[in-house]
């Protein structure tokens, strides 16, 4: 399924965030854990599936392939999609301001 500009999966969001600096697979897994403050730990199977899909959708591109490892970078389209998702998430949080701190949803 191609990315259509709608809400992103958490995996897609963190991959794009981590690719603000070009990275290869292992570095990406570490960067995702770091930018999520340890909350998201992505395994190789998930990561490479997301990378393949995002490359086909033009959100990332191959920066280098030395035969041993591939280094990916975010594209302009990917940066635009990341900014759009960031804005969407901020709006979702702002919409939640109706709740008071500590209040629970029924």
UniProtKB/TrEMBL annotation:
Keyword DNA-binding: yes
One Pfam family it belongs to: PadR
Residue intervals of the Transcription regulator PadR N-terminal domain: 20-84
Domain of life of the source: Bacteria
One GO MF term: DNA binding
Regions annotated as coiled coil: none
The UniProt record lists the keyword Nucleus: no
Keywords tagged on the record: DNA-binding
Protein name per its UniProtKB record: DNA-binding PadR family transcriptional regulator
Lineage: Bacteria, Bacillati, Bacillota, Bacilli, Bacillales
